[in-house]
Amino acid sequence: MTTKVEALTLRLRDITFFTQAFYRISYGYDATGRRGECNAVVFPAHIDDLSRILHEASRLEVPVYVRGAGTGFSGGAVPGGEGVVISTEKLRRIIHLDRDNYEVEVECGVVNQELQDYLEPHGYFYPPDPASMKVSTLGGNIAENAGGPRAYKYGVTRRYVRTLVWLSTRGEVTKSSLEGPAALLPGAEGTLGVIYSASLGILPSPEAYRTLLLSTQSDKRLMDAAAELIRRGFCPSVMEYIDSKTMHCVSDYRDIKGLDRSRSYLFVEIDGNREVVESQHRLLDDFCRRKDFSRIAAHDEGERGILWDLRRAISPSLARRGITKVNEDVALPLGRLGEAVSFIQAAAGDLDLDCYVFGHCGDGNLHVNIMTDRRNRREIERTELFVERLFTRVVEWGGTLSGEHGIGITKNRYLELLFSPPEMQLQRDVKGVFDPEGVLNPGKYFERKQETRG
């Protein structure tokens, strides 16, 4: 008996579908470590191939899972059973740089860092910079509405998407601004349409930078200081919180002179024209003297690079602490951050869990990491209890379940904490309009059809 996927490959004989176990296993994971199942993997190199694959998959009702680099922490790219993974890694052209309109057009498989490297000698930069920027694709960044350390000043991905070329579930190609249906695609996690390319807004490279680490031994004092600085008119491009456990871990991975492992830190960068940067730096310098905060400052580009290496090293340094990393990225009102960190640390201690907290405190986005082992059933049960307590409290405080990682399959069981039944049904209705056959990334976000195993 011919399966639906076999029928799909027969209809598209000129496109190679890889069915070997090597491909099906390798493309069944994302950064969560969760494993999904699929029947084949395909690598379209042109929009016409992508359109034909989607058109025939829709006719045969074959599920498709579009995948960038698989760096997501919510299982958004993990396949859910029968179906095909569409990898975008061959769609890597930087199509056009429009200097006059501050735009660049790129295919969805371009890696964020590749775009940054391309723009730098031209005197521009693309502000969204997720921690995975060296490997994550721009299509994936758009699908998850990624942010990053610079989000406090510059905002998240949606702000920079000018135009999308995207495909419907039936392979129809549309080019549109975000004033129409395409407005729903950023952050939709690949459930409503497939992004082929995007025209993205870019900015002139800043004239000057000031990059520093501020520290104290009290997490609450550090968070209160961040809030007070903002009230006083401090406007950094980056304001990152790093708790003492995380910094201890990072310092084992990257040696930084003068780093006190027992303290928590704010990683701060100011950018812009020289006059503004120096004015903001004086405000910060005066504040730190009065509050008796310790500082480590970068005095040149080399030292700035070292401090950024430290920030970028957080995720890989944590990966050495456990078999499994449970990474939640809650977002909260700024006034709740100090209280939230205290709650997180106490809740993790009560459940005997190894917890590390850092994040974009300038825009209220905390990354809560539990280092555990998926093979230890009791510890995983305690971790799940911790996550439920965390999400319940975050919603009570007026926060959300995710700042930038998305919902995927790891958080969809908790959506009822955030949305009412009519709100959930409205989202299902929207999905039905965009994807009547239900073949685009099924089981993600508000759907719960997918089972995965570690």
Account of the protein in words:
The chain is α+β, with helices and mostly antiparallel strands and 454 residues long. The protein contains 14 helices and 18 strands. Strands 15-12-14-13-17-18-16 form a seven-stranded antiparallel β-sheet, with helices on both faces. Strands 5-6-10-8-9 form a five-stranded antiparallel β-sheet. A four-stranded mixed β-sheet has the order 1-2-4-3, with helices on one face. The longest helix has 20 residues, at 377-396. Among the domains are: 94-204, Uridine Diphospho-n-acetylenolpyruvylglucosamine Reductase, domain 3 (2-Layer Sandwich), CATH 3.30.465.10; 208-315, 2-Layer Sandwich (Alpha-Beta Plaits), CATH 3.30.70; 324-411, Alpha-Beta Plaits, CATH 3.30.70.2740. The chain has helices at residues 4-11, 21-26, 47-60, 112-119, 138-144, 151-154, 219-231, 244-253, 274-291, 301-312, 314-318, 337-350, 377-396, 421-434, and strands spanning 17-18, 40-42, 64-67, 84-87, 94-98, 103-107, 124-125, 161-167, 173-177, 194-201, 203-204, 208-216, 238-242, 264-272, 294-297, 324-331, 354-360, 365-372.
